[in-house]
Amino acid sequence: xxxxxxxxxxxxxxxxxxxxxxxxxxxxxxxxxxxxxxxxxxxxxxxxxxxxxxxxxxxxxxxxxxxxxxxxx
Length: 73
What we know:
By secondary structure, the chain is mainly beta. It has 1 helix and 7 strands; from the N terminus they run ββββαβββ. The relative contact order is 0.27.
């Protein structure tokens, strides 16, 4: 299963555990199986994401090696 999409407003570079600067929106293409196999951390906090009928209550994930394939102008 291949996931493809774009980040939205609020994407920031984190260096040494601190937010350093905003980034342009990024395109990604990533195997869901590879991404889940590369999870290094899971937040305790959960968020409701999606729309009515397709919403999910999910944690944040720290994923090693997520594949970004481009950026917006």
